[in-house]
Request: fold
Amino acid sequence: MSKHLLVDGFNLIRRDRELSGVEQRNFYGAQQLLLERLAVYRRGTSHRVTVIFDGHGGPNPHRSRSHHNGVDIVYSAHGETADDVIKDLVSRPGTPGGLLVATADRDLAHSCRTHGVPVIAPGELMARSRPKIRPPAGDEFWQGKQEETGWAGHTRKKGNPSRKPKTQRRPSGLW
Reply:
């Protein structure tokens, strides 16, 4: 069953060592890195992913939405926290049972569980969203490994060599 993952954005950034280090140098760079990681996670699952960022210090009096590589982004309104937005989404009547919240905030986690919505730890989500390590390019990857042996096949084509390819042959029949 497909789930809708709600992510407490800055909570995850501040819980992850790499993202918090990036945030100290570049505030928006940490947001972009989180969004890229969640986009990788999104491509690997059928889950819908929405990240909620705090916008309570911003000038916007209403919630604003955006979209990035398959990930929905919501900024809270002026005077509203991301926790308030998530609590509002979780407590709505008729909310589908496929919600999942990623946060380390105890108060928010308790509120979500009260409404029957499971909570995932930021560390677990970030471990799932890290890109897989690829083998290094070049010959050093094959160093010490055995080549496959035992295949003595051929790559000769079969069929009539003087017959034209199907695209060049004149169609037969009435058409």
User: Anything to note?
Assistant: The two ends are 49 Å apart (CA to CA). The domain at 4-129 is CATH 3.40.50 (Rossmann fold).
